[in-house]
Design goal:
heterodimer; A: 943 residues; alpha+beta; six-stranded antiparallel beta sheet; five-stranded antiparallel beta sheet; 23 helices; 40 strands; B: mainly alpha; Rna Polymerase Sigma Factor, Chain: A; Arc Repressor Mutant, subunit A; 9 helices; 75% helix; 0% strand
């Protein structure tokens, strides 16, 4: 125990480097010892400083008057700076114009309406915000860009009359256009009809073409920047290049982009150099939104939006608006290509194309579609007839409304239901859950050594992003966040807008829909009982979020749902009863109380990325995080990394399921992507990114935690640059399979690849590594004989954990061309692999495969034999060298004899010879020699 | 009364590099309240002060390229002070020339009120700057410590309560209040030192 009066201790206490106990002891001491108290205060700061601090930190009257640097006060400022005027109808004067009102405000500044007394016309004056005006660089850019934009004269580009870059505040004068912006129109109308979409798109593209010709890139094409002139319905592009000036300064020292980047091109988001084709991408986003009412990459947060637009395909247009012709969808999809080279070559090309399409739509009989566009009816795909041939096809027994939810697995024979519209199949035969998995000969599988056997499919309406399956394989939970169509009692479909988290659970025995979580329109959900609607309202306070993680408890009595808002909700699944949320600890009335939910992350912290129960079902672990509060690096160096440098804390938390108490709060990651319990429940592995102590070095990989005390046991780093996304323990707990992603800057096409690492859980020693294309999800087979890897949304591979060689492989495209597999889950009890995915037309699918059995058992044995053989050899060699005892060698050979008598016999023969020599040399006793000889005889007999 | 730190070249040099946005933001965030408060203390209204504050920064940004530490006598800070003073004078004179109603008799008084000798102003400027430095430092330190610890410091050092009283208010023991207060003060001192050196 240190002397409490030592200077070192006081200094350490000031720096905060003492332990909690020492601090408490010190605090106690200070209450009694005035000397030490005074000493500490002196060490902290001189009395003069303390006095100064007291004086200077206290607020005074002037403090209230000084405006804080917020948007609203900037706007006020923007008006106040105007010169005084005698005209009482005006707010003031600026640059010779009479200012009559404030038209709009934004991050960049204020837009004022003015009157030009000389030319007798109204003008719009855009004033650069003062905090931007501070920056000489922003002003220079502002002037330069405005002057360049002034050079574009085109009917679909808002003209610029005058640019005033100097003076107290720079401003730009433009003609005043009566009308509304496209953003305003979309807000009031939702989506527009095809003719209008084509017309506006064509005009905007023409405007862009004119600007591109002048060498200008707009950089901020979005509905708010497209004005629709009242009366003549002319679309006009505004705000050219000005976005750049704002960006430079609006990127604060933390580099957070101001405003929403919903329409940003991927190359912009990554901070790469961009050209006119970046505007084409943004135009594609605008067309998408005009046609569907929703922007393609909209998300809860800025960073989620950026990630989506860099990585993800947008939701298929057809799923949002089925009336859209295929050729239109193709045009938009081409504009939205991540690789600029794959988009159209120029805005003028797009404009001409859209003009041709518009002409066709206006007169379909007279005018054909422009060449190169394929005309096909915008009908929904018919059910793939392949599936009809199977005897064991199960159609989903969903009653009435389906919203891409959870479906129950029913094994066994079902009557054939071929129309996809006929979804009300309550009469599905109830089958014995233990019915043998039906053989299917029509599925084109790989040859016999493929190992995996397909046995059936289920077709939910929409794509499956996340899937979980109970151990007995009887229940499947599927979720996605797509806006959906729903089917009411009469079989009519409705298209609903916006994000809708979807989750459904069906009772496997009766086919009843038990519970259905949706965010909107309770009116269209007749199946959701009153109780459940109330539950829904109680759960959901925000209008939209996505379900990002799912997990069943091992006994299938609980379902945990993780959302993009950082919430984790638990639901109880009781046979014969409606599914209810768990009551909270306060014990409110069953089903009516606040549902039990764990709030692991404050809203800003982002989504739950992974959920899992411990093997005994007593604990629930989650991980998650957000890129939000971190710098978005836009310089060239980081361009290959999606432009994100993670320094925010990733969360890994563990709760006691029964009591809801938080057992562990593990901090070590900057962003955590996956968690897994070790089979014995003692360890937790979390995969993600981290920042090393010095704050500069970033790494990613897996952290192993000791659950008893919450200490970090080991960190297994991976050499990839983007992040580690998945981790799984082998069933014996000895091995870890890890998947991490590498992003290659140079390649455009398959820029991401995954590295599968197999390491020993105890030591972190890497056994092997395997590179696969795209992102990867993985798991061990229940018997530990394979590592199952889903890569690039296309391929599932079974890999031998011992060597890293591929045992078998299946492709999504073999099931259906264009199909994409998003997630899989393994039913530990039944060796069932359930794969969830989506087809090209946006329809979802769940495929069921049977994992191979026999070959695996063989592998195990072979391994054992090899080991024993090696051991026997080693010991024999040692005996020969005089290092080991004969009885050890004998034991090794006997062990070998149990599995491979023939081999053992040979070795025993060798041992006998050795023993005889040693006996003669007096190294061993007669008794030992005799036992060896006896063993040899025995083995010979057995053989 | 308080030691007058000299402006180290760093921020100044960085300001001359017009690419360095961060330097500008730092400069503006530190000096904005200084200039504003000085103007208000000179008797200007809120709106006029804000306007002149903008002028100040514009002037600095326009002329910073040409500011040569070797040639100019005095420190960078001294130059900033002169800019402020000149602005006030010019502005007052400009307003004086406006037709009646825009300026008013007060302007004349203000002009006459400006001391010919700039000495008291120097002290005033420095005092405001020091204040701004402290405020900024306090923002930084407040972000580093727990709310309780900050409160412990605030109650005792600024509000002036005793450690016991503060402890009762915050449900902390008096000794812990003392430790918290000292820790915050120590850190404040560090940061103030850093900020003074940089600017």
């Amino acid at each position: 125990m240190k002397d409490v009066c030592s200077i070192e201790l006081l200094k350490a206490a000031l720096a905060g480097t003492v332990s909690a106990d020492e601090e408490i002891a010190l605090a106690e001491h200070l209450e009694q010892c005035a000397t030490c108290s005074a000493a500490m205060e002196n060490l902290a700061a001189e009395p003069a400083f303390c006095e100064e601090a007291a004086n200077l930190l206290a607020a005074d009257a002037l403090d209230e008057a000084l405006p804080v640097r917020e948007d609203c006060s900037l706007v006020d400022f923007g008006v106040e700076f105007l010169e005084p005027t005698e005209d009482s109808g005006c707010l003031g004067r600026l640059g010779g114009y009479d200012i009559t009102e404030v038209i709009g405000r934004g991050g960049m500044g204020v837009v004022l309406k003015g009157f030009d007394p000389e030319l007798k016309r109204f003008v719009a004056i855009k004033v650069l915000a003062p905090h931007l005006a501070h920056s000489p660089l922003a002003r220079k850019r502002f002037a330069r860009e405005a002057q360049a934009a002034a050079a574009v004269v085109h009917p679909h580009v808002l003209a610029i009359h005058q640019v005033q870059p100097n003076g107290r505040l720079p401003f730009i004068v433009m003609p005043f256009v009566a009308g509304e912006s496209l953003a305003e129109r979309l807000a009031s109308q939702g989506h527009l009809e095809l003719k209008e979409v084509l017309r506006i798109g064509m005009q905007a593209a023409a405007g862009l073409a004119a600007a591109h010709e002048q060498g200008l890139v707009h950089r901020d094409v979005k509905p708010a920047n497209i004005l629709l002139e009242r009366g003549i319905e002319r679309a006009v592009l505004t705000d050219f290049g000005l976005a750049r000036a704002a960006d430079d300064v609006a990127m604060t020292r933390w580099g957070i982009i101001a405003g929403t980047p919903q329409y940003m091109s991927p190359e912009q988001a990554r901070g790469e150099s961009l050209d006119h084709r970046s505007d084409l991408f943004s135009l594609g986003c605008v067309l998408y939104e005009m046609a569907t009412g929703v922007s393609p990459f909209k998300s809860e947060t800025t960073i989620a939006t950026l990630r989506r637009l860099v990585d993800d395909r947008p939701r298929p247009l057809a799923s949002l608006n089925p009336e859209l012709p295929n050729w239109f969808v193709q045009i938009v999809e081409r504009l939205l290509e991540k690789d600029p080279a794959r988009r159209f070559g120029s805005a003028s090309e797009v404009s001409e194309l859209l003009a041709g399409c518009l002409a066709h739509v206006q007169q379909p009989a007279a005018v054909p579609l422009p060449g190169g566009l394929v005309q096909s009816p915008a009908t929904r795909r018919r059910l793939n007839t392949r599936f009809l041939k199977k005897g064991s096809l199960v159609m989903f027994a969903t009653l009435g409304v389906i919203a891409a939810g959870m479906f129950a697995l029913q094994l066994g024979n079902q009557p054939d239901k071929s129309r996809e519209g006929d979804v009300r199949n309550r009469d599905a035969q109830k089958t014995d859950a233990d019915a043998p998995i039906a053989d299917d000969a029509t599925k084109p599988t790989k040859p016999a050594n493929a190992g995996l056997r397909w046995f059936q499919n289920i077709l939910p309406k929409f794509g499956v992003n996340t899937i979980a399956v109970t151990a007995d394989g009887k229940k499947i939970a599927i979720a996605n966040g797509n806006p959906t169509m729903s089917i009411d009692d009469d079989g009519r479909t409705h298209v609903e807008d916006g994000w809708q988290p979807q989750a459904q659970l069906l009772d496997a025995a009766t086919g009843d829909l038990r519970v259905w979580f949706r965010s909107k329109n309770p009116a269209t959900a007749p199946l959701v009982t009153g109780e459940e609607s109330a539950v829904w309202k109680a759960i959901d306070r925000s209008p939209s979020f996505e379900i990002t993680a799912l997990a069943f408890s091992p006994d299938a009595s609980l379902l945990a749902i993780g959302t993009s808002m950082g919430q984790v909700k638990l639901f109880a699944i009781r046979p014969g009863k409606p599914v209810q949320p768990l009551d909270d600890a306060a014990g409110k009335q069953a089903g009516k109380g606040t549902p039990k939910q764990f709030q692991p992350l404050p809203r800003a912290m982002g989504s739950v990325t992974s959920l899992t129960f411990s093997p005994d079902g007593s604990l629930l672990a989650m991980c998650g995080g957000s890129f939000d509060d971190v710098p978005l690096v836009v310089d060239e160096e980081e361009a290959g990394r999606l432009g994100s440098r993670v320094t925010g804390p990733g969360r890994v938390k563990v709760w006691d399921v029964k009591t809801g108490t938080l057992k562990q709060d593990l901090v070590g990651h900057s962003y955590a992507q996956a968690v897994a319990f070790s089979p014995n429940g003692a360890l937790l592995a979390s995969a993600g990114n981290w920042v090393n102590g010095d704050g500069g070095n970033r790494g990613n990989g897996v952290i192993l935690w000791n659950l008893k005390d919450g200490f970090l046991l080991a960190k297994i780093g991976t050499p990839t640059n983007a992040g580690t996304y998945a981790v799984a323990f082998s069933p014996d707990g000895k091995l870890l399979a890890i998947s991490s992603v590498q992003i290659d800057k140079d390649k455009r096409e398959d820029a991401a690849s995954s590295l599968i690492t197999l390491a020993r859980a105890g030591s972190g020693i890497v056994e092997w590594q395997l590179k696969v294309a795209g992102g990867a999800k993985l798991a061990f087979s229940p018997d530990g004989t394979s590592v199952i890897v889903l890569s690039h949304q296309r391929t599932i591979r079974l890999i031998d954990p011992a060597t890293g060689t591929t045992q078998s492989e299946i492709e999504a495209a073999d099931s259906q061309p264009g199909r994409r597999w998003d997630d899989f889950a393994i039913s530990s009890g039944r060796r069932v692999l359930a794969v969830g995915g989506v087809d090209n037309d946006g329809k979802g699918v769940v495929e069921f495969w049977e994992l191979p059995n026999h070959p695996a058992a063989e592998v195990k044995e072979l391994k054992a034999i090899t080991l024993l053989r090696e051991r026997a050899d080693l010991v024999l060699a040692d005996v020969k060298a005089g290092n080991a005892k004969v009885d050890e060698a004998l034991r090794a050979c006997k062990d070998l004899a149990e599995v491979d008598p023939a081999d053992a016999t040979k070795r025993l023969k060798l041992l006998v010879e050795l023993s005889e020599t040693m006996f003669k040399a007096g190294l061993i006793k007669k008794a030992d020699l005799l036992s060896v000889q006896a063993a040899y005889e025995l083995a010979k007999e057995r053989n | 009364m308080y030691p007058s730190p000299t402006t180290r070249a760093s921020l100044l040099l960085r300001l001359r590099d017009s690419q360095d946005h961060e330097a500008w933001m730092e400069f503006v965030s530190l000096y904005e309240p200084v200039v504003y408060r000085l103007l208000r203390k000179h008797g200007l209204q809120d709106a006029d002060s804000r306007e002149l504050m903008q002028e100040f920064f514009l002037t600095v940004s326009r002329h910073i390229d040409r500011w040569d530490p070797a040639r100019e006598r005095g420190s960078f800070r001294g130059w900033l002070r002169r800019v402020t003073r000149n602005l006030v004078i010019n502005w007052l004179k400009h307003r004086q020339r406006q037709p009646v109603g825009a300026g008013g008799p007060e302007i004349q008084e203000l002009l006459e009120g400006l001391p010919a000798n700039a000495e008291p102003e120097t002290a005033e400027f420095d005092r405001e700057l020091r204040r701004a430095v402290f405020q900024k430092a306090s923002e930084i330190v407040r972000g580093e410590v727990s709310p309780r610890m900050w409160q412990a410091f605030w109650e005792t050092s600024v509000v002036g309560s005793s450690a016991n009283a503060a402890g009762l208010k915050l449900a902390m023991r008096a000794g812990a209040v003392r430790v918290g207060k000292c820790r915050v003060l120590a850190r404040l001192r560090e940061i103030v030192g850093e900020l003074e050196n940089k600017s």
